[in-house]
Write a structure and sequence with these properties.
It is a single chain. 42% of the residues lie in helices and 19% in strands. It contains 6 helices and 10 strands, in the order βββαβββααββββααα. The strands form 3 sheets. It has a 5-stranded antiparallel β-sheet with strand order 1-2-3-5-4, with helices on one face. Strands 6-8-9 form a 3-stranded antiparallel β-sheet. It is globular and about 45 Å long. The relative contact order is 0.13.
């Protein structure tokens, strides 16, 4: 007898894709655009789905995102992450330790030429003790992040790049998101993320970030 297929539940929808929950999995289904020629539409969806899958696969190997699987030409299937969305919960959690992980995660992505493209706390999920706890070691401390994890999701705007400009824009995005969404702890959070952005190209990227920010201030003043 065939097992019943789990019901699909729409949990989010944007301009480019629907996010469906099916049992213990999430399916990202790219939306067809009626204003595009059918062949061009099909080709674009295939290219963008494949690109996001490749980036997710690399991020998964770095321990930063869920394990992806391609489902046809327009769907990516991933395990559902049980955790707390940081856009809603950051202030209620140990945000100092969480921001250390965020800074470290961004550095890992950038050192592997991965640009997220939409670095906001809406695309980050905090998972407490994702692995089975092992016996404490001498290195473990009360506030150790060894059993905690921040999972990055939605790499739909992601791409690969070696440019310091692209890495700086990624950092600028998370800095802006913190200021807009978490203004009461914004300065402290950004300082911790910046300190833990331990990329091999840290100095060059942070120097470029200052240039990106100066351009933004100039535009606001026009």
């Amino acid at each position: 007898m065939k097992e019943p297929t789990p019901k699909q539940e729409l949990i989010a929808q944007g301009a480019e894709a629907k996010i469906l929950k099916e049992g213990n999995f999430v399916i990202k289904n790219r939306i067809s655009k009626s204003y595009r020629h059918p062949e061009i539409d099909k080709k674009l969806i295939k290219q963008r789905t494949k690109r996001e899958f490749n980036i997710l696969e690399k991020a998964y190997k770095l321990g930063i995102s869920p394990k992806p699987a391609l489902e046809g030409l327009d769907k990516i299937k991933m395990p559902f992450i049980e955790g707390k969305k940081l856009s809603q919960e950051l202030e209620n959690l140990d945000y100092i330790e969480i921001c250390k992980i965020i800074g470290n995660n961004i550095a890992k992505l950038h050192d592997n030429n991965i640009i997220h493209g939409d670095l906001t706390t809406s695309n980050m999920i905090f998972v407490s003790n994702p692995a089975k706890k092992s016996a404490p070691t001498k290195k473990a401390t009360k506030n150790s992040t060894i059993n905690n994890k921040v999972v990055f999701i939605d790499f739909g705007l992601g791409f690969t790049s070696e440019r310091f400009e692209d890495r700086a824009v990624d950092l600028h995005l998370i800095k802006q998101a913190l200021e807009a969404k978490h203004h009461t702890i914004y300065k402290e959070c950004w300082k911790i993320i910046e300190e833990n952005y331990n990329s091999k190209d840290r100095a060059n990227t942070l120097a470029q970030l200052k240039k990106v920010e100066s351009r933004g201030r100039y535009k606001k003043g026009e």
